[in-house]
């Protein structure tokens, strides 16, 4: 329901804004505005009422039909608005409108769309009135009956029961965690302690808590115990009453304040254990803590939750421990599966003929204990033959939704989705538009969400910053899985959703007409859909019923012929497109009519063969993102300077065949005039030369710039670049590459650097490390390549307070690296490559306390292990490549007399060069 509100509300808001604007200039429209505004507001109120009721009871079919009609009317309104704006824009941008006569002609041409618009508005008003009348018949203004709430509570209780009563032999891999939790409960400081069990649905939080709670040694340790299931829409009075019933049944009080007081007084002299299972609301702890005295008697409170923000709230005024549960390892998942699937026969052993299928089924369960147990339990009732198991494997995703023997899985995972606020639901549904198992960069998500209109403006924040808040909230709710990637280009997060959650996403998206997916299994698009995603489709034809209302087209790994068919036959029908993504599609051209897509906001041509942009691109006045990374395009047309809403230009080409050298990198050549693009935040990478002084000076006008990359930078432009950089108060990422290995990058003239800089990379000669670099308190990633410092750069850099990543490649010509005592307190990854003269690495005590990864390569004079490496207790990976054999042996845990220095490191890898392109492990 909330997703309908999220889709409908922005459309209605835009319509009202447009109506108010047009009514001021067109009298006939004024009388329509007020009545339509009333109808819109009434429907929005009905939607909120319907949402509240849908959370308490199953929706009747009639209500579902009503919601579908509301959604379709919202789509119709959006079409009317966008078509009207398109018609007006086409008249405004037609060439030759100069002088009085042509301005008059333009005015008369604009009248027809306005009259058509009035007719459309009348139709919309009539449709909304019918929808409102039907909403009144469904009684959305009245409150839902009390009994419906009991149904929801019973249903929720049923879902929890499956987790409460899992047998011990199904409890594989949680025994050690249970023992650890029990120790935390019965030992430790007498301070009242909250223990939060955190993780996604089905991960085993409730099971773990119950096993520890039911243990005899735990029950005997505490004076009183209570298990309270909280759920999504808990009632505080009922919850306190349940606590009282468990702890002190003689209480018969209904007033919340009195209940809290009596519970507090009762528990004041007790050592108590209370479990709050399935907590969703962040404000829960702020209320319930008042009933739980901190009495220094060793009391313990367990909270199970999917929401990291709940755990953060529990930390505020209490001793607090957090245990985040992860999916089972493949080995343990396999043991759990076999123990349950073959428990009645074969003594828990998988027959050889079923092993491949069984492994595939286990993989689909992705380490969730509840899912593995449920699927294996279902298979235990099936015949143990290949055909029977193949049948279930092929339909496993559908089984999660429909099989009565797997009732709780879909409901458990759906709870997390249903609990999302309306503004997050479209963002979360958007994950399903990308191919399965694809890791999506956070930047890609932000730009797509913004182009789609999902992100609401907030005062003093960019849309990108708001989008980051949305993503962080999804991560904190354990709905999005994240991999942090720290590399020379900076840090970025790669995101994906669990496969089973993706099943929920695709099902809900299909219900809403949110998008349709075409792949090797589906080649026909039925009905209307707002978004179309095509991937792994290698046929040259596809059937689409109606593409006119599509706002987004994403193509992934498809045949080039199909892409050309799309551009030649379908693109002209998609007049209202906002997102066009050709990532990895082998096209070499764009249609000349690209500029007719007036509403286009996001154009991604990454990894295509496109060589040029049509001049009509200057008509795309709403374009926000232009991604040209790894294309054959080398120069932007001057018409780019007309795009006043452009926020991001990404374009560079890296020729991997040449290796890491200056000639391998090519950027975009752009015309002067770029300074007029006041909204520009990203310019990555622009290629310059000695004649680009005007362009460099213009950069100071780009005051919103966050990301800047410059290639082929000649030394004589240094002072002008320093002056421009000093005015970029929001700059977060800067890459500067000189014209050659001998060319000097002179940035000494910067006196007041942008303190917001977090990622800084140099490629080219630097006389020394400038003082302004040492002032960058927010710098977390720093890379030097070909700088050829004569003095040890690590001595200069070791006091940067937030540096996490440091990369040196042919950056230092000295023979000793010395990290002094206490240096680099935040560094996590250090890479030292091609330092030809270095003979010694000294690591002072107390330095590098957080270092996780050390990579050393191609330092031919370095033959001894870094001193004091044994004190880097957080070190997890040591990677050695192209190093002298003496150094390789010194860095082996089972090597020579120095082996004890790296015995604490779990992963030590050594490589030697093999041929031109690959490194193989020794």
Automatic annotation (TrEMBL):
<dbReference type="Pfam" id="PF18052">
    <property type="entry name" value="Rx_N"/>
</dbReference>
<dbReference type="GO" id="GO:0043531">
    <property type="term" value="F:ADP binding"/>
</dbReference>
<dbReference type="InterPro" id="IPR041118">
    <property type="entry name" value="Rx_N"/>
</dbReference>
<feature type="domain" description="Disease resistance R13L4/SHOC-2-like LRR">
    <location>
        <begin position="550"/>
        <end position="881"/>
    </location>
</feature>
<dbReference type="InterPro" id="IPR042197">
    <property type="entry name" value="Apaf_helical"/>
</dbReference>
<dbReference type="InterPro" id="IPR032675">
    <property type="entry name" value="LRR_dom_sf"/>
</dbReference>
<keyword id="KW-0175">Coiled coil</keyword>
<dbReference type="InterPro" id="IPR027417">
    <property type="entry name" value="P-loop_NTPase"/>
</dbReference>
<dbReference type="Pfam" id="PF23559">
    <property type="entry name" value="WHD_DRP"/>
</dbReference>
<dbReference type="InterPro" id="IPR055414">
    <property type="entry name" value="LRR_R13L4/SHOC2-like"/>
</dbReference>
<dbReference type="InterPro" id="IPR002182">
    <property type="entry name" value="NB-ARC"/>
</dbReference>
<feature type="domain" description="NB-ARC">
    <location>
        <begin position="178"/>
        <end position="345"/>
    </location>
</feature>
<dbReference type="GO" id="GO:0098542">
    <property type="term" value="P:defense response to other organism"/>
</dbReference>
<dbReference type="Pfam" id="PF00931">
    <property type="entry name" value="NB-ARC"/>
</dbReference>
<keyword id="KW-0677">Repeat</keyword>
<dbReference type="InterPro" id="IPR038005">
    <property type="entry name" value="RX-like_CC"/>
</dbReference>
<keyword id="KW-0611">Plant defense</keyword>
<dbReference type="InterPro" id="IPR044974">
    <property type="entry name" value="Disease_R_plants"/>
</dbReference>
<keyword id="KW-0547">Nucleotide-binding</keyword>
<feature type="domain" description="Disease resistance protein winged helix">
    <location>
        <begin position="433"/>
        <end position="502"/>
    </location>
</feature>
<dbReference type="InterPro" id="IPR036388">
    <property type="entry name" value="WH-like_DNA-bd_sf"/>
</dbReference>
<dbReference type="InterPro" id="IPR058922">
    <property type="entry name" value="WHD_DRP"/>
</dbReference>
<dbReference type="Pfam" id="PF23598">
    <property type="entry name" value="LRR_14"/>
</dbReference>
<feature type="coiled-coil region">
    <location>
        <begin position="19"/>
        <end position="53"/>
    </location>
</feature>
<feature type="domain" description="Disease resistance N-terminal">
    <location>
        <begin position="8"/>
        <end position="96"/>
    </location>
</feature>
<protein>
    <submittedName>
        <fullName>Disease resistance protein RPM1</fullName>
    </submittedName>
</protein>
